[in-house]
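User: Design a sequence. Structure:
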């Protein structure tokens, strides 16, 4: 057997060992805090062993490495030609499911298993992030998960323990169907355009405590969570899905209020942080946070975030700025984003992928820039249970 094949099998075996440990931490009945801490310690020890093993894996080629940086949408309720092609030929990092992809727990479980099997049967055999936007309130895409109140309702009651329990329950329901990633919680302060009842409230300290509690709940369920939308969509008066929101806060206000919940999310160990398509002139006078080196440096430097920076969906007008999704993808990678969401049609997914691959091959984007992102993505994938193969 070739050394590369042996190494990949070692990595897969370590992933399967993680399955046992994380399942103890996130599945079954209610878990006590003491048991949760003990299980986390076990996972941390196993993670260290995993990193030793994955460090031996030969660096991926450019096409496979760039593919790991994409999370794409798909059509229908079972894998079709296009998503199979993205997995098998471009080694994508994940798939984002919406309501039209999920009819029931059983159907979704079959879908997620089929997607994971395709990825694991294709070199370099890396499990997928299978993601949803499921927050509670008005944003609840998984039909088998019981309805939970909006963040605004929970925030009004002011009990972080309720936020933790809701996130844990949602996470466990998602995990049963093979969904391993939830782009939640919203830690924006305020109820501006596109946010509304999705925010826990107007008080940054309240939002910080609620968001941190929800992150802990998702973690206890074995779910990869993502705090959003950095640096704060709450004050915006324009929706980044269709417009170009601008928030004219000075740096003092940004540091004191806007970033407080995101700092708390970092301290809570959030594995992903979603950068929003928001222009904060005090940070960057030209580019929205998702495409801004200055904004991502603020997240890395000021907040000390070492995890995965994921963009909000790049098909949104706030990222495209009248241009193309491929242009937005290229700018996001140059800015330092690790994971790019492209939920649009297959041709837009391919164009975004090709743009980044071409930029790396031409030297426009250093290969090291890609390797740094792939390493961060790999660290999250090795820490969390993504696919057990059962």
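Assistant: Done.
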């Amino acid at each position: 057997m070739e050394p590369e094949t042996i190494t990949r099998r070692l990595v897969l075996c370590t992933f399967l060992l993680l399955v046992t440990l994380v399942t103890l931490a996130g599945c079954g009945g209610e878990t006590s805090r003491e048991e949760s801490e003990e299980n986390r310690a076990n996972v941390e020890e196993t993670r260290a062993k995993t990193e030793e093993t994955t460090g031996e894996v030969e660096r991926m080629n450019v096409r496979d490495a760039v593919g790991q940086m994409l999370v794409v949408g798909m059509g229908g309720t079972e894998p079709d030609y296009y998503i199979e092609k993205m997995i098998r030929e471009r080694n994508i990092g994940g798939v984002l499911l919406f309501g039209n992809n999920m009819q029931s727990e059983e159907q979704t479980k079959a879908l997620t298993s089929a997607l994971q099997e395709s990825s694991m049967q294709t070199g370099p055999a890396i499990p997928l992030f299978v993601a949803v936007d499921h927050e509670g309130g008005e944003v609840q895409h998984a039909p088998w998960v019981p309805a939970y109140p909006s963040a605004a309702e929970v925030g009004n009651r002011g009990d972080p323990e309720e936020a933790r329990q809701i996130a844990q329950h949602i996470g466990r329901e998602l995990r049963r169907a093979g969904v391993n990633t939830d782009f939640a919680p919203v830690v924006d302060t305020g109820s501006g355009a596109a946010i509304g009842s999705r925010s826990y409230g107007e008080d940054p300290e309240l939002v910080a405590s609620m968001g941190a509690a929800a992150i802990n709940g998702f973690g206890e369920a074995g779910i990869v969570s993502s705090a959003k939308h950095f640096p704060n969509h709450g004050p915006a008066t324009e929706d980044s899905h269709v417009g170009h929101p601008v928030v004219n806060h000075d740096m003092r206000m940004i540091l004191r209020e806007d970033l407080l919940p995101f700092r708390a999310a970092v301290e809570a160990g959030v594995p992903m942080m979603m950068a929003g398509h928001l222009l904060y002139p005090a940070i960057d006078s030209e580019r929205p946070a998702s495409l801004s080196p200055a904004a991502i440096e603020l997240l890395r430097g000021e907040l000390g975030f070492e995890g995965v920076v994921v963009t909000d969906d790049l098909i949104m007008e706030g990222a495209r700025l009248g241009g193309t999704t491929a242009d937005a993808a290229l700018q996001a990678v140059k800015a330092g984003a690790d994971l790019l969401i492209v939920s649009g049609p297959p041709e837009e997914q391919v164009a975004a992928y090709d743009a980044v691959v071409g930029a790396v091959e031409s030297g426009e984007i250093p290969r090291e820039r890609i390797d740094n992102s792939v390493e961060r993505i790999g660290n999250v994938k090795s820490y969390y249970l993504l696919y057990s193969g059962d």
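The domain at 60-383 is CATH 3.20.20.300 (TIM Barrel). The first helix runs from residue 3 to 26.
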